[in-house]
Amino acid sequence: MGLLPQGFRFSQASLATAEVCARRFYLRYLARLRWPAAADPAGLAREKGAARGRVFHHLVLQHMLGLPVAAEVEVQQDPVLARWWRHFLQYPPPGVPRGRVFAEIELWVPLGPWRLRARFDQVVLDEYGGLCILDWKTGSPPPQGYLGSWQTRVYAFAGSEGGALFTGSGPVSPEQVSLCYWQAAHPAAVQWYRHGATAHAEVRAQIEALASRLADYGDREQFELTADHGPCRTCEFRAYCGRGEGVGPGWEEEGEEDEGDEGLAPPLEPWG
Ligand code: SF4
Fold first, then answer.
1. Global pTM?
2. Of 4, 45, 163, 268, which residue is the least packed, with the fewest Cβ within 10 Å?
């Protein structure tokens, strides 16, 4: 029997992690090991960046709910955050349809014995039944870099499969799903993605293949260390793997994406 629990909730972050390194997936999502990143200078920078990103997302949500935001921006006394907020007000992503708006929605869709989780910053259901997913980026990678990412694949797939949450009736066809990345630091660099039936089938096959491989692993050793040492340089587990000390500079994900993957089952013993 494999170590992956029935009903495991895959997310774009956990799928991306598994693709990079099966051992990192094991340590992060099954053993649920947390490296004391804050003790490391790079970890401190990461925590600060992730915290600012969370505040920004919170401000957007307040704004969507019609609550005042300006005073909260002022209180933060963070010029970067203040600039992001100005960008948000002055340079909204062009081309977003009018329609019913949903903010901070989490969606789970069944996928064989597992589930797939997506958390959307904002979704607009237009009058023709089209679903436009908006994602506010506060990390450093340019939005173009997300086009082939697991986030794009998972969000578009989940938006279509779980579209009934928004339509109140049935799923949304893949052709009617679009995704827009807007970056707080560079609001002009908007990136759109249009989903479709072919891409939808490919994403399903990719997720099932990766999840099935992980489900076959019966002990920790089968979650192999990546042969490419490149990802180890920015990995919080590199000391565990004997591939360096500390957290390493940079990070691959915005921290908030991982929240909600915990509490599935008691964590496995990392060395078990
Ligand atoms: S240090 Fe390298 S091998 Fe170990 S979990 Fe991280 S990426 Fe994988």
1. 0.87
2. 45
